[in-house]
Amino acid sequence: VTAVNPAQEYRRTLILAALDLDRAPAPKVLDIGSGLGDLLVDLHALYPGIPKVGIELSRSGVEIASHRLPQARFLQRDLIGGHDDPGEYRAFATHAVCSEVLEHVDDPVRLLRNSQPYLAPGCRLVVTVPGGPKSQFDLHIGHRRHFTPQDLYDVLNKAGFKVEYTTGAGFPFFNLYRFFVILRGKRLVVDSEGEPSALLKIVSLIFDQLFRLNLSKSALGWQTIGIARL
């Protein structure tokens, strides 16, 4: 399902705009909760010369991501426990991303606090989290909660970051896509375990075009994004 998910490409667009790497003199990027390395793979295609590090709890995730992008460094770290030494990557990142991670943990404030040893002073942090109601698929993949812009502001502030702004994004078509996902219910869970159906592929193509018309800042948008600095 991820391969035909237009929401992922839309988030990438928002994240790249928020990182603003083109104006940074010597950027170094950290992906907090790097999963299988999707974000850094996409980032490397655009910025091959920028040093990149991913932090991920799952050992298999680190192994897969390292194989996919040997030009980056992927570290297995427990940011909830917070007992791992950053070593050579202390104060590494001038820019950091935490995308679609905080909804999976019970204590997002602790996770962000424990990421700080990896961030250089003044590091620009971009966070995306889901907003709006949860779908059956969200519950299937372990979403604890969804966030309003105020929720995300409070988490970033409590974690000790200086918040530039938090906002909703994606109105109206991201919301409409989410309605489709919600209405699909448990059938989307079944779809995710096999080859994407023809319906999903068609819907993805349609929304991929419609997402170009979304508002990148709107209180009504169900994609929540924030920018903060250490």
Structure description:
By secondary structure, this protein is an alpha/beta fold. The chain contains 9 helices and 7 strands. It has helices spanning 6-19, 38-46, 59-68, 108-115, 136-140, 149-158, 173-184, 186-192, 198-210, and strands at 29-32, 52-56, 73-76, 93-99, 119-130, 162-169, 223-229. The protein has a 7-stranded mixed beta sheet with strand order 3-2-1-4-5-7-6, with helices on both faces. It is globular and about 45 Å long.
Poorly predicted tracts of residues: none
Q: What sort of overall outline do the alpha carbons produce when their principal axes are compared? A: globular
What is the averaged pLDDT score? 93
End-to-end Cα distance, whole Å, is 35 Å
Question: What's the β-strand tally?
Answer: 7
Rg value: 17 Å
Largest sheet: 7 strands, mixed
Query: Approximately how much helix is present in the residues?
Result: 25-40%
Listing every helix as H and every strand as E from the N terminus to the C terminus, the arrangement reads HEHEHEEHEHHEHHHE
Strand content: 15-25%
Number of distinct helices = 9
Task: Determine the structural class based on helices, strands and strand pairing.
Answer: alpha/beta
Instruction: Give me the side-by-side strand order of the main sheet.
Output: 3-2-1-4-5-7-6
